[in-house]
Design a protein that fits this description.
Length: about 55
């Protein structure tokens, strides 16, 4: 909703992408899963915030 939440979600998504790529390059499945989870949850939170904004208007 606020700019702070938007930035926090974008950082979480970026962190997830980086972690997932590191997991791929080191062939560490645990890091891949953690990265994928962070990336997806950040994207879902962003989508939720966008939906809230759309229904407020």
């Amino acid at each position: 909703m606020s700019t702070r939440n938007t930035i926090r979600n974008m950082i979480q998504t970026g962190k997830g992408r980086i972690t997932e790529r590191i997991g791929r390059s080191t062939r560490n499945r645990k890091l891949q899963r953690e990265g994928r989870t962070d990336r997806i949850s950040g994207n879902l939170k962003q989508s939720g915030d966008k939906a809230k904004k759309a229904f407020r208007r």
